[in-house]
């Protein structure tokens, strides 16, 4: 596979499905991944924020990687999120991912601890440098309180040839423009916030780490393709239908809400791992209104 092609297209941030007893449902995980690849997605990104990675144990993470590598084989790459409370464990996770057969890594900031560029840069360098796998840096300051600025990303890119991409989730589409201004085509840029996908592509992004794709894979792929092709009229029509759902990806309980959408469309269940709990009350009622309207007005592709 051309290294560049690893980052171009729709890559689901796949949710982690749980059985009734709270364990990971590996059978559904494999089926769900294949469903999204069948719909035109180009790779699978487990163990990110949407994958509830912070609630998973080390061995559970490795087991998820194994399931997906086996399920997808040569059809599509598995690119797990790598994050931990400690640098040493993140490095171990990266090396295990390579041994399992993952073909790339998404490098997240460390859980909980956020500080200055000296420490965050050292952490990211250690994980990126742990293997020769192609890496994508995940910048999500709203969630992780660590903001990799464009100049800092350029510094990491200069030090690590295997840093090939950035998942940009700062919520500021201008960051894509700023990174491109500094680095040209050195890095592939991917949108990490669902409700910024059309704007992100217009700014130069070539990939989408998507959330609502877990419930609407065909629509996600079609929207991406229309936006990339510059078909603004058709893209806008589909985007307007999709936006109320895509905005569910941008709120604190996005995991619960996306899993609720999955359950309502028959592509999963809404079980989450504590401390998360399923949404209830007015929040649930409002979400269900959005979901049911989308189902009732779902466009024919």
How would you portray this structure in words?
Helix 3 runs parallel beside helix 4 (117-128). The chain has one domain (9-242): TIM Barrel (Alpha-Beta Barrel), CATH 3.20.20. The protein has twelve helices and seven strands. It has 301 residues and is of the alpha/beta class. The protein is globular, with a radius of gyration of 18 Å.
Q: And the CATH topology?
A: TIM Barrel
Cα-to-Cα separation, first versus last residue? 29 Å
The sequence of SSEs as H and E is EHHEHEHEHHEHEHEHHHH
Instruction: Determine Rg (CA atoms, Å).
Output: 18 Å
**Spans where pLDDT lies below 50 across 5 or more residues:** none
Family: Belongs to the DapA family.
Pfam family, one: DHDPS
GO molecular function: 4-hydroxy-tetrahydrodipicolinate synthase activity
Keywords: Lyase
